[in-house]
Specification:
By secondary structure, the protein is α+β, with helices and mostly antiparallel strands. The chain has nine helices and twelve strands. It is extended and about 120 Å long.
């Protein structure tokens, strides 16, 4: 077990673990830590706790110090410069005629590097752009291409529910979402209704995945027979949110009625309790009726199928000449005239 604290560098960003060393900050404090990109200022999200060593990416770096007032002011100055760098980079992109969309700009805390985030349909040759930006800002330049989900996370916005999108509010990681989740929740498969601001399936489809799978395992599918307190029936609809199902039940007056039952009152039927299916009666074969003479005249006569004699089997050259000699010998004997007896 290793003692760590959780630090986050962006709103709704990923939480990274650091060694508290001798600082031991509390949640909500700003700290200065060393990362792979250099010195960074982050916010403590989780206090000191022990976790398994398997969940840590080695080597575990230490917290340098608590952020001072000068550190916070310096961080605010970097954020103010990001707006100017964003406008300059957009101007350079238009100048070079590159098909890319600038999303965000980030200064490192020590001011040694600027990171530009952009989206593009394919690969972009931005070597000349990097040279131009490096000559303008006199520091290291990094251009990083991101996906549409990361773009929505950085830009933010409102979802179809009217609340801020989940990835920009509290989601730190993107979980895989499939169309199967929408089918299990009986949602419309219209892409405009189940897609988020990024154009992908909404992340909230995975929130109720477990409860839907657990409930659907207890019940047969729609159209399958089931047993109710009023007898056997067929499921016509399932409402997982209300934990109820609608069943078509056979009533006493030889009619059907749609009734609603709680999930706990529905059971799978025993094969012995199911009514036997009535055997289908063989359909009578209609007797051929004699056609009137007028219809018989109008009908065209059927064509006769031509039959061809089968060809002889394939033989080699020796067999062919032997057969030919035999045929000639028979023909010579038949043509010879009979001799008169003396």
């Amino acid at each position: 077990m290793t003692t760590v604290i959780g630090v986050r560098f962006k709103k709704a960003g990923k939480v990274y673990y650091f060694d508290p060393s001798d600082v031991w900050p509390n949640p909500g404090d700003s700290v200065i830590v060393e990362t792979s990109r250099g010195i960074e200022l982050g916010e403590v999200i989780t206090g000191a706790r022990e976790i398994d060593g398997d969940r840590i990416v080695a080597p575990l770096k230490k917290v340098l110090r608590l952020a001072s007032r000068e550190d916070v002011e310096r961080f605010a100055v970097n954020q103010a410069q990001e707006a100017d760098a964003f406008a300059i980079c957009q101007e350079r992109i238009a100048k070079h005629g590159l098909e890319m969309k600038l999303i965000d700009v980030e200064y490192t805390f020590d001011g040694s590097k600027i990171v530009f985030y952009f989206t593009a349909d394919g690969r972009v040759d931005f070597r000349e752009l990097v040279k131009d930006l490096a000559a303008t800002f006199k520091m290291r330049i990094e251009l990083r291409q991101i996906g549409v989900r990361d773009e929505a996370k950085m830009l933010g916005g409102l979802g179809p529910c009217g609340r801020p999108i989940c990835c920009g509010a509290f989601l730190s990681d993107f979980q895989p979402v499939s169309i199967k989740m929408a089918k299990e929740q009986n949602l419309s498969l219209n892409p405009t209704k189940i897609s988020g601001q990024c154009g992908r399936l909404m992340c909230c489809l995975s929130y109720e995945k477990d409860i839907y799978e657990e409930t659907l395992k207890k019940l047969p599918r729609v159209g399958k027979p089931c047993m109710t307190p009023d007898g056997g029936g067929v499921i016509t609809d399932i409402n997982v949110i209300r934990q109820k199902v609608r069943v078509r039940v056979h009533s006493s007056d030889d009619s059907y009625e749609i009734r609603e039952y709680p999930v706990d009152e529905i059971t799978r039927p025993d094969p012995n309790q199911l009514p036997a299916r009535p055997q289908e009666k063989p359909r009578p074969v209609p007797e051929e009726q004699e056609k009137p003479a007028e219809e018989a005249k109008d009908e065209k006569p059927r064509k006769k199928r031509l039959t061809f004699a089968r060809g002889s089997k394939q033989v080699n050259t020796d067999q062919y000449f032997e057969n030919l000699k035999a045929k000639r010998g028979e023909s010579d004997q038949g043509d010879a005239a009979p001799q008169d007896p003396q």
